[in-house]
Amino acid sequence: MASFLIIDDHPLFREALGNAVRLALPEARILEAMSIGDALDILSAEQGIDLALLDLSLPDATGFSGFLRLRETYPRLPVAIVSSEEDQHVVREALALGAAGYLPKSTSKRELAASIEGVLSGSVSVPRDFVATPQRRKAETSRALEVKLRELTPQQIRVLDLLRRGYPNRQIAQELQLAESTVKAHITEILRKLGLFSRNKAIIEIGKMDLPDPRNRPYARADRGRPQ
What we know:
- A five-stranded parallel β-sheet has the order 2-1-3-4-5, with helices on both faces.
- The chain is built from ten helices and five strands; from the N terminus they run E-H-E-H-E-H-E-H-E-H-H-H-H-H-H.
- Strand 1 (3-7), helix 1 and strand 2 form a beta-alpha-beta unit.
- It is an alpha/beta fold.
- It is elongated and about 55 Å long.
- Helix 8 crosses helix 9.
- 49% of the residues lie in helices and 10% in strands.
- It folds into two domains: 3-120, Rossmann fold; 135-219, Winged helix-like DNA-binding domain superfamily/Winged helix DNA-binding domain (Arc Repressor Mutant, subunit A), CATH 1.10.10.
């Protein structure tokens, strides 16, 4: 019997998604969570979850931060994103970060059921109108960001690493023993240097890149006059 974890803070959609799961697998075992925190508690207590179905918009997550927290804590757990966001770039980045599929909330129950069956069988489900980014463009974008990463200070690299792993500002501050206001200042400067408009965009773009080692001298510029 397959087991599912539905992570969504809207009861009506949890019910609708549960119905789609049961349409595909009538005997499925379904657990529900309203936040990433709830999901992590359930996963720590339950074994044998075959697939998590995750909404991107949750009370304790922004953008892909919740997805990254799940992947970091349970790297072998397949996670498919079910979202009202249908922007092609968001879909591409979700797949690049390792999502098992991307299922738009506008999809019919029957189509959702078919997509869930496909994910369980090892396929990666994507929206019908999805167009993959050419590999050449991906490579060009990655190279440009790698150059910009060299402009970050060692402390900014540490902040960025925790940011892309889904840590909120408060936890970043605790990990690096900084004031939360200092973390915010670092993030503002990181986004400026990388030419990105939001922390979500930073999580998307930097998610699978290797960051420079902050101990490596070419990146270890002096932090004078910058937040510490």
